Amino acid sequence: MSITAELQIRDAHPREREEAVSLSVAAYSEYRESYSGEFWEGYKQSMRDLWFREDLPAGRIIAVRDGRLLGCLLLYPPVERLYERLQANIPYHEIRLLAVDPAARGQGIATALIRECAERARSGGDPYLGLHTTQQMRAAVRLYRRLGFERAPEFDFPGGDERTLVEAYRLPLEGGLSLLSAAL
Asked: Which domain holds residue 19?
């Protein structure tokens, strides 16, 4: 667990999962118009399923300030077939569903969550911390690049809508943590 100013980064309690799902849906709803109604409903269900899924090991990490959930994500260690549409296995920790309350954006919450994940991955011996995103998520891509993430196209795969390329990024953990520390 780490604390940045009054922001607390910690593992979520099981009772906080429902709130994390709601926050994730709120954070990702800005992309709703990019998808068909059916796809969006499936995406929301996927968020719920991932937060409550027990058959894959996931760190459920949240950011809380003054008792209010402001951000959350899932952190997976290297596992087989983390993504249904990706044939390759990602050999390092992977962030999924990074979400920040839309009213709390621009306060360093995503960076603090990523830093926590980078520290956990590095302490586990990983050379990289990975994540996947799409070009639709422009602000997220800008943040990842600013923090030192680089493209890893060998782990790209087609999105569920068959039009979107889900792009892989990874943060080299040797130099990446210094970039993250400077960003906080």
From this structure: 2-183
